[in-house]
Write a structure and sequence with these properties.
251 residues; single chain
């Protein structure tokens, strides 16, 4: 009987999340629609997404954030933001972790999500990993956005790993792009998203979301030959944070 009511609670918790995702979009639909019509207005769109969408969702889910920074982002500078990926909360948490406007690079399947997908396909850089031409187009769009002073965000695992995998292998794209455009890579470790809101429907709970923003990896002196070593160094940084005993956090 207890497990039955527990499952009901998890079910309602997940439904509540999707309500929180949809309501701000519906309320601010005219404003969001206007701001996504021109690329030069994207920083304003980002501000709305960060403060009037992501923030209410995380608060409404009972998930306050604690962010530790080893290095701070410089306003107006472009970066490659990367993090581990285990939850839908990763999107909102990334928006809260960076005040610098950035554009997500993500899989085209997210377009199918009702309401969210409408704006996703208008402001994010979509990639079809099975299509070589799609990957080439991503680089061209990313280059244009970087020239506008924006940053790029990629979850380099390329998807959500199996629940038993702490951190999947990283794809090359984010690191190749960072080297080609000579922008720093900013590794972030999201420590609690899998526990708070996993993709498994009958699980999850409110609680603290901790983020560790690590020291940046500079790429100005790197070339294509350093792509693999950069990728593995960044992955090791995030993996070490995920696997170490967390004694230096207030929980």
């Amino acid at each position: 009987m207890f497990s039955f009511f527990k499952n009901i609670g998890h079910f309602l918790y997940h439904i509540w999340f999707y309500i929180l995702v949809a309501v701000p979009i519906i309320l601010f639909f005219p404003v969001l629609l206007l701001l996504c019509t021109k690329e030069k207005w994207y920083p304003s769109f980002f501000w709305v997404a960060r403060n009037l969408w992501a923030r209410p969702i995380l608060l409404g889910m009972g998930c306050p954030q604690q962010i530790k920074r080893e290095q701070k982002l410089i306003k107006g500078k472009s970066y490659m933001l990367v993090a581990n990926h285990t939850s839908m909360l990763d999107i909102m948490l990334m928006l809260r972790a960076s005040r610098n406007p950035f554009v997500f690079v993500g899989k085209k399947e997210l377009v199918k999500i009702p309401i969210f997908g409408f704006f996703y396909k208008r402001v994010c850089i979509m990639v079809d990993r099975s299509d070589t031409k799609s990957r080439t187009a991503v680089y061209m769009r990313a280059q244009r956005r970087l020239k506008q002073g924006l940053s790029i965000c990629i979850f380099p695992e390329g998807g959500v790993p199996d629940k038993n995998v702490i951190l999947d292998t990283f794809k090359d794209g984010a690191f190749r792009m960072a080297i080609n455009h000579k922008i720093p890579v900013v590794p972030m470790t999201f420590l609690d998203c899998k526990k708070r809101f996993p993709f498994s429907f009958y699980s999850g709970s409110p609680g603290l979301l901790r983020v560790k923003i690590h020291s940046f990896f500079e790429t100005k002196d790197l070339d294509e030959n350093h792509k693999i070593s950069l990728r593995e160094d960044v992955r090791t940084t995030i993996l070490n944070e995920l696997t170490k005993k967390q004694t230096d956090w207030f929980i």
